[in-house]
Automatic annotation (TrEMBL):
Helicase ATP-binding domain location: 1-158
InterPro entries in the record: Helicase_ATP-bd (IPR014001), P-loop_NTPase (IPR027417), SNF2-like_sf (IPR038718), SNF2_N (IPR000330)
Family annotation (Gene3D superfamilies): Tandem AAA-ATPase domain
PANTHER family: SNF2/RAD54 HELICASE FAMILY (PTHR10799)
GO MF term list: ATP binding
Source domain of life: Eukaryota
Record protein name field: Helicase ATP-binding domain-containing protein
């Protein structure tokens, strides 16, 4: 695995490329995760559908919902060995950091990564708290949006 930025323009299949990476790690390297995808809430359904469609071997859990739903997910689904990929929103990454920080993630994938361009934002600070082997930043905006210095905080190859 490596750190990186996937910065193709919109519509060129960044989601599928990312799922393909996770599928490759699972099938050919025996690396089942856990991985975490952090994305806009409006895209979580698409992430789940694409994982099921293109890489059904990956056990994906969508971590979202009201407090009761999240409690069920925490206790029954988001358990080490029961899932490969946790798909969650930026808001949940902040609100549920106590739960999500229990894991040592293999990959943390940040979709729409231009949202962490402000190093001092709560989201950016929270994402740096998570333990992970590797990070993949996904954005459809030009690379200039993510400053060199900030990328180095995430140990990402440009």
């Amino acid at each position: 695995g490596i750190n990186g930025i996937l910065a193709d323009e919109m519509g060129l299949g960044k989601t599928l490329q990312t799922i393909s990476l996770l599928g490759y790690l699972h099938e050919f390297r025996g690396i089942t995760g856990p991985h975490m995808v952090v994305a806009p809430k409006s895209t979580l359904g698409n992430w789940m559908n694409e994982i099921k469609r293109f890489c059904p071997v990956l056990r994906a859990v969508k971590f979202l919902g009201n407090p009761e739903e999240r409690k069920y997910i925490r206790e029954e689904l988001l358990v080490a060995g029961k899932f490969d990929v946790c798909v969650t929103s930026f808001e949940m990454a902040i609100k549920e950091k106590a739960t999500l920080r229990r894991f040592s993630w293999r990959y943390i994938i940040i979709d729409e990564a231009h949202r962490i361009k402000n190093e001092n934002s709560l989201l950016s600070k929270t994402m740096r708290l998570y333990k992970t082997n590797y990070r993949l930043l996904i954005t459809g905006t030009p690379l200039q949006v993510i400053t060199w210095m900030h990328a180095f905080h995430f140990n990402v190859c440009l």
